[in-house]
Amino acid sequence: METILLNTENHVAIITINREKALNALSTQVLTELNQTLDEINANKDVYCIIITGAGAKSFVAGADIAEMKDKSVEEAATYGQFGNEVFRKIETFRCPVIAAVNGFALGGGCELAMSCDIRLAAENAVFGQPEVGLGITPGFGGTQRLARLVGAGVAKEMIFGARNIKADRAYAIGLVNAVYPAEELMGAAMKMANGIAKNAPIAVANAKRAINDGLQSDIDSGIAIEVKEFADCFRTEDQTYGMTCFLEKAKEKTFSNK
Ligand code: DAK
Question: Which residues contact 200 (CB under 8 A, 6 or more apart)?
Answer without folding.
Answer: 256
